[in-house]
Write a structure and sequence with these properties.
- This protein has three helices and 23 strands.
- The chain is α+β, with helices and mostly antiparallel strands.
- The protein has three domains: 117 residues, conserved putative lor/sdh protein from methanococcus maripaludis s2 fold (Beta Barrel), CATH 2.40.420; 88 residues, Efflux pump adaptor protein, beta barrel domain (Elongation Factor Tu (Ef-tu), domain 3); 142 residues, RNA polymerase II/Efflux pump adaptor protein, barrel-sandwich hybrid domain (OB fold (Dihydrolipoamide Acetyltransferase, E2P)).
- Helix 2 packs antiparallel against helix 3.
- The two termini are 36 Å apart.
Amino acid sequence: MTRTFLTALFLFTTAMGLPLSVLAEGEGAARATPVTTVRVEAADLREVTHVRASIESVNAPTLHGKVAAEVVEILVDEGDPVKRGQVLARLDDEGFRLDKEAAEADIARLEATLANQLLTLERDRKLFKKGLIPDDKLDASRTAVKQTRASIVHAKALLKKAEYQLSHTVIEAPLDGIVQARMVSVGDYINPMSPASKPLFQIVDTRHLRARLYFPDILAARLRPGLPVTLIQGADRVETRISQLLPMIDDASLAKIALADFDNVRNWPPGLHISADVVLSEHHGVPAVPEGVLVRRPSGLVVYRLAADGETVREVRVKVGIHEGGRVEIIDGLRPGDEVVLDGAAYLSDGVKVAPTTATEPAR
């Protein structure tokens, strides 16, 4: 045993808190390698991927005028909170009121005419039965009634159109939200039929938000609605789930995009860029060990399991699954309760004698 080796072994055993008696073995005796061990535990592990995300409003309508008229009153400005049904602006309604009154008057006139024509038709029927008038006179009375009834239908349609146009001279908020933009002023003329027509307002719903999640395209096949999502902004966390998947890979970002709706409990503004943890899979009650027990050999990943005698180790090839928080799932090779080497594993081989101590805080 060389002096250099003894010195190194002394320093190692001292650092590990092991008894110095391991140095007292004779020249010919097999030396026990000092190691620490941990037991395989049954654990619940999650496979989590970290992605970037952006926040947007689920509802952010841009309001346009539906009738051609001048803006006569603006009641809100950018940044103002609004409630559904609240009046935002008014347009000049004089022309539409006149159209409504004209349609109502026309209907009244036609209904009076119809009442008189019905009386005439009834009288002509009686006269025709007595042979006092020819059949073409009766037909003329019938035609007059039909024409007036058709005119009434047309007049009522004009009335509905006038009422519709009149109702849209009052611009109302379609939802609760905040005015993001006001694009018009008093005196602007709104003409929805013109190519140059501009919108009136944009309202943003800040209570119901959506996270747009950007995944590497290699994960596209593993995504599905319902996967748990934790949205992260500084110290704030919001729990939600994937609600929808967009069908195509995004050209600009080359990412598969998923959407996750949530209520804005953290008062996040739409447009915010955040990050997100997405749980791709969850395994419950699986054998798990600290990642430090794994050793890569030419044959693959192995661990060193303490033999029944408590003094030697066996090299065991393992298959691994989910990694989370410094722990790894063992798919094949170990069972809960097995004792495996943690510190010192890289220096072992099959059948080596060891001097084990239990690790008090397994590496994660």
